[in-house]
Structures are given as structure tokens and as C-alpha cells.
Design a protein that fits this description.
Length: about 240
């Protein structure tokens, strides 16, 4: 479904990703884990069109067989990719409903807005009573629900999640990851970038380890967690 080959991304003269290659299969829940500064957010923002691959580097991103490496940023959502960014980035003064509706402005998604909204509220029942409330007044966990719901309102084929557990209590994290698993089971492919390695490994079909801008390991969560260097580096075991 998603094929990334020799991806290179830089901030000015400073490289952030070096020759990154990986694939995400149809209907798969894939996680990319790694320490702070590894390049995880750079990777996911590049896959969402927010950042660009280094021109002339020869790397490419293909989605459903189509090269989207140079696709204009505003066309990524139309292609079927939706991002839940780190820090949520909601419109705090707008209502929860308005924030959700922003995710369904493309014609195909707008035509099914009512149906998708019902699905989002079934996924996050706590939001139903908050639809008329300003998003900035919600708890951190509820704001993350809105951010995920907003992305789902676009009816994506691929959902990109950047650190969804960041700053949240363990109870809320458990609830959010259960929702992510449900979205995945219902047919949406998911790419999860996450520092909470134990939780990410628990829900993923496969995992990659990103370190200093390079992919250094790949496999099933079970296989990776049996490797001593992975356990020492990311679980403190």
C-alpha cells in the first residue's frame, strides 16, 4: 500500500532522515518506534506532505502504486492519507463539532459527513455531550479523541498517528489505543509513530526501529522484543 524507498529529508543543511526504506501493507497496523530525535516526526510529516524529501536525492514515496513524493501538500488528504499530528493542533476557540467537520471538507467525505460523525461518536462516546463546547476547554485525552476523530472524518485509507499517547494518563492511553485497534480492524491501515514502545508493540502487526534518522531494525513485535539490544535501548530491560 505504502512504499518508501531511500527517503532523505533535511532541515536546511542538516540531514534528518538518511536512506529510509520501508513498506506498509494493505490493512496493516505498522509502528515506528525510536528515541527522541530519531526522526519519527520528520518521517510522518513527510508521509503526510507537510515536509518534502530532499530534491534530487532519488528517494520516493509510493501510495497505492502512485508516486506521491512531489504531490502538493493539500492533495495528500484527497489521495487517502490523514494525519493526527503531535500535540493535536485543534482550533481551541472552535467547537468540537466544528473541529470534526473540518476533517470532512473534501466532496467525497462531506457527502457522508453524518454517517462518519456517527462512527466517530460511537468510537469516542465521551465527545457526544461535548459537541457544542470549545475544543480548547476539553481535557488532554478528549482533545486527542477530537484530533483522531477529525482525521477519521476524511474517511482515509491510511491513518498517520504521531505520538498519540504523549502527555496522557495510562487509563486514557489504554482507551485511545483500543479505539485505534478498532479503526484498524474495520479496515483502515494505520502507521503509528510512538515513544511508548511497550504499548505500540502490543497493538502493531509489524514494527520498525528508527535511530538517528536511519531504520536499524524491522520485524514482528514479538521478534524485536526478543532482541536484547532492543529491550535494553527502548524498554530499560
Amino acid at each position: 500500500m505504502l512504499e518508501v524507498h531511500d527517503l532523505q529529508v533535511a532541515y536546511g543543511a542538516a540531514p534528518a532522515l538518511w536512506g529510509v526504506s520501508f513498506e506498509l501493507r494493505s490493512r496493516e497496523l505498522l509502528t515506528v518506534v525510536g528515541p527522541n530525535g530519531a526522526g519519527k516526526t520528520t518521517l510522518i510529516n513527510t508521509l503526510a506532505g507537510v515536509l518534502r524529501a530532499t530534491p534530487g536525492s532519488g528517494g520516493h514515496i509510493r501510495f497505492e502504486g502512485r508516486d506521491i513524493t512531489t504531490l502538493p501538500a493539500h492533495r495528500f488528504c484527497d489521495a487517502g492519507i490523514a494525519l493526527v499530528p503531535e500535540g493535536r493542533r485543534l482550533f481551541g476557540s472552535m467547537t468540537v463539532l466544528e473541529n470534526l467537520e473540518i476533517g470532512s471538507l473534501l466532496p467525497a467525505a462531506k457527502a457522508r459527513r453524518g454517517e462518519t460523525l456517527a462512527m466517530v461518536l460511537a468510537l469516542f462516546p465521551a465527545l457526544e455531550a461535548k459537541l457544542g463546547q470549545a475544543a480548547g476547554e476539553l481535557s488532554g485525552g478528549q482533545q486527542q479523541m477530537v484530533a483522531i476523530g477529525r482525521a477519521l472524518m476524511a474517511r482515509p485509507k491510511l491513518l498517520l498517528l504521531d505520538e498519540p499517547s504523549l502527555g496522557l494518563s495510562p487509563l486514557i492511553v489504554t482507551e485511545l489505543f483500543a479505539a485505534i485497534q478498532r479503526v484498524h480492524r474495520e479496515g483502515t491501515a494505520v502507521l503509528l509513530v510512538e515513544q511508548n514502545v511497550a504499548t505500540a508493540m502490543r497493538v502493531a502487526d509489524r514494527a520498525y526501529v528508527l535511530e538517528e534518522g536511519r531504520m536499524v531494525a524491522e520485524g514482528t513485535p514479538e521478534a524485536l522484543m526478543q532482541r536484547d539490544e532492543i529491550r535494553r535501548a527502548y524498554l530499560g530491560v
